[in-house]
Amino acid sequence: MKLDRSLQREMLGILRGTYPRPEQCKLFESAGCDSERDEQIVANLLYLEEHGLVRSGIEFSLGGSVIYQGNATITAAGLDFLEDDGGLTAILGTVTVKLHADSIRDLMLSKVEVASMPTEEKSRLKKAISTMSGEALKEVTKKLVAAGMESAPDAVAYIRILLGA
Description:
Elements: H1 5-18, H2 36-50, E1 54-55, E2 58-60, E3 66-68, E4 73-74, H3 76-82, H4 87-92, H5 101-114, H6 119-130, H7 134-150, H8 152-163
Antiparallel strand pairs: 1-4, 2-3
């Protein structure tokens, strides 16, 4: 049995159309789920359920026959999946990373320390970093991140090394 993305999208669309009333949904051609298409629907519906996008309403009898209760519903994750913006899942799943000013300063100071430059220049840079205002530190950090993104191929190689991929 092959998973069928267009069938999955079609089923999600049908379930979105009947949401929140599962009893109005008629996915199967036959009540006993006997046809080849019904078997494909069962497999794809269970696949969507395993990913938390639907509640299938499918059970299996002791003999392995499919029992469709007629109550398939789309979940909040399924509805969000269909939305162009990712829905509330995208909003609620946002991760905010906060770096303390002292942490940023320490990173910058350690980079200056290992740089190959005259001692006098290192001292001058360290003093400038240590006395930098919060706003100046914020601007420098933005520029450093932008410069780091310009070196993205190097960053990807480094990530591979760190993750052992």
